Structure formats: C-alpha cells, structure tokens
Structure to design on (198 residues):
C-alpha cells in the first residue's frame, strides 16, 4: 500500500506473496460475502484491509468499513471480520465460514497477490545493488531453513509442524517474478479504482 502513498523504489526480488490460498489473511463471515454491509478490518495491515474491500466489492457487497481488532468486530455489529497472521489460523476453530483472501484474489484475477516487498524512498542514498543482494541472500537462507521454522511454529502452539511446513513451502512465495509484478500492478490499479469510487 505504501507504494501508492509515497515515492518508493523496489530494491530486492524478495517478497511475501501467494498464488492461491494463503491461510493467514482471511475474512470470518456471519453472512454470505455479497451480503456483507459492515466489515471490521484488522488495523495491522492497510494492504490487507483494502484487499478485503476490493474482493467484497467484486462479489457485489458495498460494506461500511470499521477498523477494529478482529475479536471485537462482531460485537460492533460487523458481518465480516478481517483476520491476519497467526490469529487467522486460530479462527479456523471458530466454526465460522472463512474466506481466504489470497484464494479469492487468485480467483478474481488469475494472479498472485503480493503482501509485501522491500522498497526504499526515492531519495534514499544507499547502494541499491548491495542492499538488494543482501536481502535476496537473506531470503534464500530463510527458505533453506523451512524445517526448523516449521518445528518452531509447532513449539509456539500456533500451527502443527506439518501445517507450518505447508504454509511456508506451498502457501507463501518469496520471489518477485513477472507474475507477482502483474499481480501487484493489478492490486494497485484496483486500489486506485476504489479511491475513485468506481
């Protein structure tokens, strides 16, 4: 989202993206998606807030958007709550229908969704090449430690080791390629349309 709010330039091929279901960015629903009139959005991610609104509008809803913690959304009269990160996995036990927004975006556009990239201000005086190489190397090292991360997630009680392994190796994509670029461009265009009310 910050790519639209200030002049930034991308400095790495590292990213956080998904091409289909992601599992960690979901809408918990009390009504059918097209019937959502009030949407509670997690304040921790403006990018995901707008993704939720874009997907619901695509499905025919025109929700009032309220920023609130997801566990307060229904008490505030919301029909849907945006849940992000570890809490999204815990909400699978809530009994409510969940809409995976990575999957919804892929169904809408046929493209991956990019949740984050590494970027710097246009006026930053840095060596972009060395910073980009360092970030790419950090990504590659992390991708080589999936098993340790999966076991750590099980220890933390957030996910079982197998669920964490699936999340880290099949749900999340870490390399910004041409499809991710197209997905990011489509998202930024959708945000601009949303701002214009079209």
């Amino acid at each position: 989202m910050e790519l639209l709010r200030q002049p930034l330039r991308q400095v790495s091929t590292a990213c956080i993206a998904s091409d289909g279901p992601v599992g960690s960015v979901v809408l918990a629903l009390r009504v059918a998606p097209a019937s959502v009139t009030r949407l509670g959005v997690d304040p921790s991610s403006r990018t995901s807030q707008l993704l939720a609104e874009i997907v619901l509008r695509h499905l025919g809803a025109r929700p009032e958007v309220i920023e609130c913690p997801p566990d307060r959304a229904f008490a505030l009269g919301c029909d849907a709550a945006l849940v992000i990160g570890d809490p999204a996995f815990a909400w699978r036990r809530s009994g409510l229908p969940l809409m995976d927004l990575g999957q919804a975006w892929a169904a809408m556009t046929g493209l991956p969704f990019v949740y984050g990239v590494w970027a710097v201000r246009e006026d930053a005086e840095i060596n972009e090449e060395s910073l980009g190489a360092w970030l790419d190397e950090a990504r590659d090292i992390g991708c080589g430690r999936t098993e340790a991360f999966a076991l750590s997630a099980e220890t933390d009680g957030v996910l079982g080791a197998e669920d964490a392994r699936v999340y880290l190796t099949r749900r999340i994509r870490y390399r910004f390629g041409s499809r991710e670029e197209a997905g990011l461009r489509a998202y930024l265009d959708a945000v601009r349309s949303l701002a214009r009310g079209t």
